[in-house]
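Me: I'm a chemist; would you kindly supply a protein sequence with its structure tokens?

Assistant:
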Amino acid sequence: MSEFDLIRRHFTRATPGALLGVGDDCALLQVTPGKVLAVSSDMLVSGTHFFPDADPYLLGHKTLAVNLSDLAAMGAVPRWATLAISLPTADEPWLEQFSAGFFALAARNGVDLVGGDTTRGPLNLCVTIFGEVDAPQALRRSGAQAGDEIWVSGNLGDAALALAHMQGQVRLDEEEFALCATALHQPQPRVALGLALRGLACSAIDISDGLLADLGHILDASGVGAEIDLSSLPVSDVLRRRFAANYPLSGGDDYELCFTVPLSRHAEVLAIGQEIDLPLTCVGRIVSGHGCMILDVDGKLIDTESTGYEHFR
């Protein structure tokens, strides 16, 4: 199968949101008047971000999901994506399942695949995603202020616990692993939450490298510090039974949102959670100063061993 046959068969779909999609030297995109583009790229590399034998349907989902999570953190409406993919072989059954997972999530979020590239090489997946947002409403990392509450969506740590099981660091039973593996292999980008937080959140970020690491980016950009209440972290029953602070604090691959909101708007956040049927939990507060302090149930400062995943550490 030639490169162009592969693209036509597995990665060419109608692109009603683009003036011109796959098949020419460039896509042609018409930005909605008054909006600005939010653009992000993420690369998933076999052996680094996923196991070589990963389920292709779930991998197709996750390849797009991690990029949608970036748009969610900016409060942007998803519109278009490109996909650059390096493949060891043109494995038809694998490509059929991968593209099915990718396009299923794309359809649910109104994303058109408008271009990309394919080549032979080690399995490597890179998406660039484009969204739209009113510039004044874009959620940024730099707006946190002392007195803000710190919130997170969903549960934290399940994906890291599933990965630890797969790496032989912990042992989960079959049912426990199945519950945690969903968080690792099929994260749900919080696009609806990001849109609902526009005009409400002072700052936001998606949690990809661990809560402490990603919250740290907000603190650095905003010039503030934080206090996190360890007992407030939202965790599943599986993780609670096997609780270790490093999973919800420092584990990666959550793809939940962390955001800060003025204390006076606490009830509005709770109302959003009910409206979109997503648990939202206040886990701490922004304070003057710098760095992040972790407090136990008695309000005493505790140490943590890791602040999150780093590729080159």
